[in-house]
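in:
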């Protein structure tokens, strides 16, 4: 096996570990927030998820720009992973040991998110430094993201049924493993020390073409945030599923989403980015709408498989477009910016999806989110074609 392939596997494992740890919490989030002192389900779950992603938005860009400035990514990945592990442990200890209120829990959650996004975003940035093609490298990132979420959802549901705090403990252990993996392999960043973090972020803002993949990243992650909260509550309330059963239904999406990312990423190197991004997003949005309208859990589960396939088609191509457009010396900041857009989308999915579901109902919430995905695909198509 070539050295670059070994590095690709190790860095993809870091990305996998971060996402696996994160998604462990999702199927049982209503039970988790109750164990952490919350008195409501939907509102408290929204705040708990939103606190992490607000921190992602604030810190993804600075982490990436700092790695460009230093010319190093791996030490910062270790700091983010180990710090995130400590954050998960603090959350698990909050009810009994630390004796903090739920507001204090949200502060701990934000700190944990600020550290965790460093490991995730810089793991992706380190993959872009490797040779072999942007589609291939982002396909590796995509399969890591999909695999982490695919395995994290069902296991998190099972752990929740044992103890609502158990996913936090397991998440901490997985992040420590990620930190260890990040120490293996050389640095491949060929720049460093050229710009301050502020200058790097300012220069990145002056690259308007990046707004195209950032927009698609935003809307794609909006649907992910929607499924993490509203989708979880929908399957549990509309069909009477347990946390473990809900995790299995979510895995029907994440399974094909994980397994097909790498081949779809390689394919995008050959056929271009337009068809996977625009065509995939349009079809994806329409199927998301359908998930919330069908009358049986069997039909919904079958549509979740299709959602996973379409998500796998568009995700690596969107990430690869970022690295196609970003200057080499600001690639870390560009990936950070993409993760800012994605995190903002996830946060919007949680907040907007939760609001619409609470005010109007679940079918209307699925229509809103899926319709937004399809609309963006149509509206942004001219700009995407211009980049080709």
């Amino acid at each position: 096996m070539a050295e670059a392939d070994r590095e690709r596997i190790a860095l993809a494992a870091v990305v996998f570990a971060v996402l696996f740890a994160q998604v462990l919490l999702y199927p049982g989030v209503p039970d988790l927030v109750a164990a952490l002192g919350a008195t409501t389900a939907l509102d408290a779950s929204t705040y708990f998820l939103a606190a992490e992603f607000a921190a992602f938005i604030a810190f993804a860009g600075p982490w990436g720009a700092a790695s460009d400035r230093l010319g190093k990514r791996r030490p910062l990945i270790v700091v983010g992973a180990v710090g995130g592990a400590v954050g998960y442990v603090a959350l698990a200890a909050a009810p009994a040991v630390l004796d903090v209120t739920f507001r204090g829990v949200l502060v701990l959650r934000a700190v944990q998110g600020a550290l965790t996004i460093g490991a995730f975003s810089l793991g992706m940035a380190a993959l872009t430094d490797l040779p072999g093609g942007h589609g291939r490298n982002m396909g590796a990132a995509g399969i890591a993201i999909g695999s982490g979420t695919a395995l994290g959802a069902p296991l998190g549901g099972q752990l929740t049924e044992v103890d609502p705090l158990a996913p936090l403990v397991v998440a901490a252990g997985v992040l420590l493993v990620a930190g260890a993996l990040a120490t293996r392999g050389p640095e491949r960043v060929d720049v460093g020390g050229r710009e301050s973090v502020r200058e790097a972020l300012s220069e990145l803002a002056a690259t308007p073409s990046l707004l195209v993949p950032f927009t698609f990243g935003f809307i794609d992650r909006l649907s992910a945030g929607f499924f993490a909260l509203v989708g979880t509550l929908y399957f549990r309330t509309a069909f009477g599923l347990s946390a473990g059963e809900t995790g299995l239904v979510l895995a029907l999406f994440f399974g094909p989403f994980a397994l097909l990312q790498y081949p779809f990423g390689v394919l995008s190197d050959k056929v271009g980015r337009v068809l996977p991004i625009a065509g995939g997003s349009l079809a994806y949005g329409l199927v998301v709408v359908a998930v919330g309208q069908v009358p049986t859990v069997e039909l919904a589960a079958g549509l979740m498989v299709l959602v996973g396939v379409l998500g796998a088609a568009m995700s690596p191509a969107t990430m690869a477009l970022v690295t196609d457009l970003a200057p080499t010396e600001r690639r870390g900041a560009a990936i950070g910016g993409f993760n800012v857009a994605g995190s903002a989308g996830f946060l919007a999915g949680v907040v907007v999806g939760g609001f619409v579901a609470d005010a109007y109902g679940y079918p209307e919430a699925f229509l809103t989110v899926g319709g937004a995905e399809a609309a963006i695909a149509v509206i942004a198509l001219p700009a995407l074609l211009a980049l080709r």
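note: The CA atoms of residues 49 and 171 lie 15 Å apart.
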